[in-house]
Design brief:
It comes from Spongiibacter thalassae. This is EAL domain-containing protein. The chain is of the alpha/beta class. Helix content is 53%, strand content 20%. The chain is built from twelve helices and ten strands. Strands 1-2-4-5-6-7-8-9 form an eight-stranded mixed β-barrel, surrounded by four helices. β6, α8 and β7 form a beta-alpha-beta unit. α1 runs parallel beside α3 and α3 packs parallel to α5. The longest helix has 34 residues. The radius of gyration is 21 Å and the shape is globular. The mean pLDDT is 94. Bound molecules: ligand C2E and calcium ion (3 copies). The site of one calcium ion has 4 residues, from loops.
Length: 278
Amino acid sequence: AKNSGRNTYCFFEDAMQKRADQRLKVEKELRYAIDNNQLELYYQPQLDSAGQCVSAEALVRWNHPERGVVAPGEFIPIAEESALIERLGRWVLRAGCWQLQEWQNDGIYLDHLAINVCARQFHCGDIVQDVRDALDYFGVDPSRIILEITESLIVENVIDTISKMNELKTLGVRISLDDFGTGYSSLRYLKQLPIHQLKIDQSFVRDVASDESDLVIVETILSMAHHLRLEVVAEGVETEEQLALLQARNCEYFQGYYFCRPVPSAQFVAYVEEARNK
Ligand code: C2E
Ligand code: CA
Ligand code: CA
Ligand code: CA
């Protein structure tokens, strides 16, 4: 028994070592990827209630030389464990601002682009400076960027959140509260913080047509948001039925596979042009 205990211990130690090695490897590869153009932004349309594509959410992908297209869930958490996320975040901000201008030159005008920002990037880095730099560099108007942050990011450091969000507001950049309803309930912050928009999490949208409680949650979020003069985006819209239910309750914007998956820029442009000609 003594022996097997020791073996178990060694086994765990090996497994932990392996995981640490693996993480270091990915970190190194990711650092290389950022500097060597292996990252790419995909874009998912956001439509208004008239069916017009008025904006998009930028979602990062890693074109890995061996693994192909890698989804952010596989590398953002690793980047977030180190200062790498700040570099990645700056890359995303710049790529997004560049793309907005590029589209505009090609006759594709979006009201704004939504860009995801995670906790470490927001609190540890100088997010305000990073945003300002990217906007200035490409001559993008601040009102055309919406930063998507989560409730947990706020709760992690309320003082820092308040001061940085106020600076961003002064700059003219807007804030959207992503995955709303899934994190620590922070209803108080809706009033205190300069938030412009709520995104109803896709977990509530998924069963909105079949589950009475989800419908009530969605209705409650919409009614509360509208009383607080916040606009609402529903994410994860996959069916016509979901869309109809949300539209009937005055949700302003919609995003999901029902319209379009996140796609590379060229496909996004094709989507917008096709929708325009309909
Ligand atoms: P998120 O911000 O909640 O993004 C929504 C996710 O839902 C995206 O996954 C999107 O592809 C997916 N989605 C969109 N429509 C539908 C739908 O109709 N049905 C379903 N089932 N899913 C849908 P993705 O692209 O894999 O991104 C995952 C997460 O990675 C994002 O969640 C976000 O938290 C993070 N992320 C993505 N890009 C960035 C980035 O540039 N920076 C940071 N910090 N995080 C990012
Ligand atoms: Ca998001
Ligand atoms: Ca979300
Ligand atoms: Ca999410």
